[in-house]
Design goal:
The chain has 7 helices and 10 strands. The radius of gyration is 23 Å and the shape is globular. The protein has 215 residues and is an alpha/beta fold. The chain has a single domain, classed as 3-Layer(aba) Sandwich (Rossmann fold). The strands form 2 sheets. An 8-stranded mixed β-sheet has the order 3-4-2-5-6-7-8-10.
């Protein structure tokens, strides 16, 4: 009887120890994983909500727009400027270079109407002149953008606190900071943090953990 009780006690203790270890793993071991996925989860959730509420059918453009919004949350800018010195609180400006897709523009406009970035209202601009560049916080270069135009704009914003996001295969080589790419039919992005530092931008470690860092 004593032996059976001792055996039962050991088994009970073992189960409790296993449960305690498993709970600790859940509470502490997954913290890093959750932190590294926080941006991705935010993007995915927002994309699904936008799809349900607005009825957009191009999920790729939907996810790109949500990513672009989240980049604005995980990057720090030194200052905000405006083309109009009389504006005390200039907007957070996302500039689109050239012609993007109608679906992408619609998704981005939907976000701009409902959200804010850096405690500022969001404005979406179509970039038509060099004078607009200095007021942008993010510049987005859609796929198949004219290479000559891209190079010209990058030269004009060199050293300015503007986050450059694009899609062309050699966008990073041209001086871009974040580039979208497809891998196994999944939209991903790579980051060149050194180019961001040169532009006085600070990219959050959370974003760096989710993206592919290149040097």
């Amino acid at each position: 009887m004593t032996f059976q009780w001792a055996t039962h006690s050991k088994q009970l203790f073992g189960r409790r120890l296993h449960a305690a270890v498993r709970l600790a793993c859940v509470r502490f071991g997954l913290i890093g994983l959750l932190a590294s996925l926080v941006v991705m989860c935010t993007v995915s959730n927002f994309g699904l909500q936008a799809q349900e509420q607005e009825g957009f059918v191009n999920r790729g453009d939907q996810i790109k727009a949500a990513y672009l919004y989240n980049f604005g949350k995980y990057v720090t800018w030194p200052t905000f400027v405006s083309q109009d010195d009389q504006i005390k609180e200039p907007p957070f400006v996302i500039g689109i270079v050239g012609d993007g897709s109608v679906s992408f523009d619609a998704n981005l406009q939907t976000i701009a109407k409902k959200k804010m970035l850096q405690n500022r209202r969001i404005q979406i601009w179509k970039i038509t002149s060099a004078s607009q560049l200095r007021a942008c916080q993010i510049l987005y270069f859609p796929e198949k953008q004219d290479r000559k135009l891209t190079s010209q704009i990058m030269r004009n914003v060199k050293g300015m606190p503007v986050l450059l996001v694009g899609e062309s295969p050699d966008f990073i080589q041209q001086g871009g900071m974040i580039r979208f790419y497809l891998e196994e039919n999944k939209l991903k992005f790579e980051i060149h943090p050194a180019f961001a530092v040169r532009a006085q931008l600070k990219i959050s470690s959370k974003l760096l953990r989710v993206g592919k860092v290149v040097k």
